[in-house]
Amino acid sequence: MNGTITPSTQYLTVPGGRIAYDDTRQGDGTPVVLLPGMLDSRAAYRHLRPLLVAAGHRVVTMDLRGFGESSITWDDYGPAALAGDVLALLDHLGIERAVLAGNSYTGATVVKAAGDAPERVAGIVLLNAFVENPPQGALMRGAMGLMGAALVHWPAAWGFYLRRMAFPGARPADFDAYVDGLVAALRTPGRKTATRGYVHGDSAPVGWTAAVRCPALVVMGSKDPDFPKPELVADRQAAALGARKAMIEGSGHYPMADNPAATADALLPFLAELG
């Protein structure tokens, strides 16, 4: 897309099912692995990937358990299990070290992978992630519980969130078709199991960042509706990781889609420093 050829889907079999991914294969420097957020697919990076490739990077994008073209039903959808999938994919591709980028739910995944296998992770990027969030109060827990139930039983609720909240400013040209596809995917037989697994997963672990020793970059949309004060969240994560911070002005929860150019501008200097 965006004038480039989209790599073909490949699969990795791991205990419990198959993980779908694609790989541009070529590129100088440390490879980059991009992980989407929950209920999304690796196509979330369809507008950012070409910019990273054009800058000379090998880019791997991976579907999560239960979504995209990966197997739907698994025993575990938590970020620690996903971290194991990422490391297995690096082994499969013969990649000794990579930069891992996670959006939203999978911010915790890349943090976990970096802590568990520091020799394999050259750096991490958190894109509007939830890690190191303080415990929620009773009112917020109740609201999130209701939202989770809505996502499991009424896929249209996901479309409502994406259309009315997640993209407060610019939208990609293919936005409507993309959202329609995500909502349709939630209606696939068996998908409720996967949706429930993510809704009840721990996307905001506190303390995992303490094990991270690699360089880190925190990227946050300034108008992310998931956080009352997005910049304060980014500051907290950057402090926990000793990371640099990049705010994407006007972006919502998916800066790699609503402002891929600014997101690439934030990522490329960081990637260049890692070799």
TrEMBL record:
Alphabetized UniProt keyword annotations: Hydrolase
Q: GO molecular function: any one?
A: hydrolase activity
InterPro entries found in the cross-reference section: AB_hydrolase_1, AB_hydrolase_fold, Carboxylesterase_BioH, Epox_hydrolase-like
Q: Which residues form a coiled coil?
A: none
The record, for Gene3D superfamilies, names:
alpha/beta hydrolase
**Residue ranges constituting the AB hydrolase-1 domain according to the UniProt record:** 31-170
Per its UniProt record, what Pfam families does this chain match?
Answer: Abhydrolase_1
Q: Which PANTHER family match?
A: HYDROLASE ALPHA/BETA FOLD FAMILY (PTHR43194), PEROXISOMAL MEMBRANE PROTEIN LPX1 (PTHR43194:SF2)
Name of the protein described by the UniProt record: Alpha/beta hydrolase
Q: Specify the species.
A: Kitasatospora xanthocidica
Specify the taxonomic lineage: Bacteria, Bacillati, Actinomycetota, Actinomycetes, Kitasatosporales
